[in-house]
Amino acid sequence: MCGIIGYTPAQTESQPNGNGNILDVLLDGLSDLEYRGYDSAGVAIANSSVTVHKRNGELSELEATVSEESVGGYAGIGHTRWSTHGPPSDENAHPHTDCNGSVAVVHNGIIENYRELREELTAAGHEFDSQTDTEVIPHLIETSLEQGANVETAFRRAIDRLEGSFAVAAVFSGSEAVYATRNQSPLVLGIGEDGYHLASDVPAFLDHTDQVVYLQDEQFAKLCSSGVEITDKGRTLVDMPVKTVEWDPEEAGKSGYDHYMLKEINEQPRAIRNCIRGRVDEMTGSISIKELDDLDRPERIHLVACGTSYHASLYAARLFRDGDIPATAFYASEYDASAVPINEETLVIGVTQSGETADTVGALRDANSKGAETLAVTNVVGGSASRKTDHVMYIRSGPEISVAATKTFASQQVALAMLSTTLTGECSHEFVEGLRALPDQIQSILDSSRVREVVGTYVNSDAYFFIGRGYGAPVALEGALKMKEITYKHAEGFPAGELKHGPLALVTDRTPVVAIVSGKSNTEKMLGNVKEVEAREAPVITVTDSPDTVENYADHLLQIPETAWQFTPILANVQLQLLAYRTANQLGRSIDKPRNLAKSVTVE
Ligand code: F6R
After folding, report:
1. Is pLDDT of 383 > 90?
2. Which residue of 296, 449, 556, 591 has the lowest C-beta tally within 10 Å?
């Protein structure tokens, strides 16, 4: 997720004009935003002109380019970039400028209509230096400035043209203010004695002030040496409350959550909104994935992946098969392209959040060499997987810091579900409505989950078993993986029908069984499996959208809302994530960095 920062020094005795050395404040702030993950960084400082420094790679690369110069100025902005449009490079790093270099802009989020805007601006003679969606903003501003608008009007007019999610900040040559606004992307202002700050997250300026104002959607902020002005869309002044942040810097990176894992579980509604954005046609209610326009319905599909991504692949393989495309999910490490039917009509999909997993990248390479068409479904722009495949679909989760994958699993499933509709040609009204409702439904689970009541009772169990059928089976596997990796407890997931073929021997009164029971499919059979484990005195925790049906069979019930059948597993998984997290927390485990595990596994 990109990080934004802005700063204007206050008028003080030592700097009566508010003209101070802004660079140090910006660079310090950017280093405080590093935890969010980034691939390039940059700053812009305004005085009579605008000076921009930006570099691909670590912040130290940027620092090396600016350390010789002490840039004084009235206003500055900075950015750490997590690529969404265009790979990491010096050119794609923010800030971006107009043709004259007199306005510089940083942006967090996605501008959905940037293609149309870019075409329009290019036709009008503007020249673009980057592949980003962001660069349309300074050129839009430039257009209004040329028409005689002042900087504030030009900024507002440009923002008016944007569709999508964004937090934007800009500085202008000859202007001593930072202008900023937001729509569905966070932006917070800091009111300090040394000056006025803005950032996408509090840690960026917590060393300077704990007095903050949370900007709301469609509000505009103007920061200058004499203070901060907040206005609404109609330019009416808005009086926003100033709040005191009580986090220490360590907590602040996690936005107050105890662990990144919990923060990322809670980020799922936003991650899914990002994944969907611009991919649902509001007019027709159909799904369209522009970057995959040239991908035809294949004869068959292979999905290759590891761990959690493999579980997302199992889910997707089922969706493709239900849409009549033969599809199989393979552990990437077990994929043998010479032993499976494969030709140019085969689509091999590598599902990998990091884009760097050696087994998955290797399987894609093999598939390529056998002539298959390849697609990476990934979170990291410019990662190895995206460079080695014919097509790429980004899941747009933002960086995931905790080793245990959570929000990326949800986004992978959503991305693959959308992909399945475009390849199979089957997209029902119920599917689109379910997709749109998903972020709010996840939020409702996060707000009301009763997992805490369950955890205390079973925290010292011998083992945990997870069962599900059909679309519930991959979730059962994922629930067990999450439980084992962060609690270090024995946990196993099974397709429920497999229980009686062996695993039932392990079931006792000290092994809680978590059953995913949807009222929409396989209900009777699942209830039969639940009875089997109850007969062995195992406590049963059900995750269900159908409480009336299961209430007589379960010791505990974790409810999820009803939705289109494709999305029930995504909702059920949120309860399982919370169950694993709360259990690990009670056991005092190292949740974000479990023993022996790494976020990105780059060896085969
Ligand atoms: C588990 C987990 C791992 C990864 C696996 C693949 O929580 O995160 O099982 O899913 O290592 O990683 P990616 O998706 O980066 O290929």
Report:
1. no
2. 296
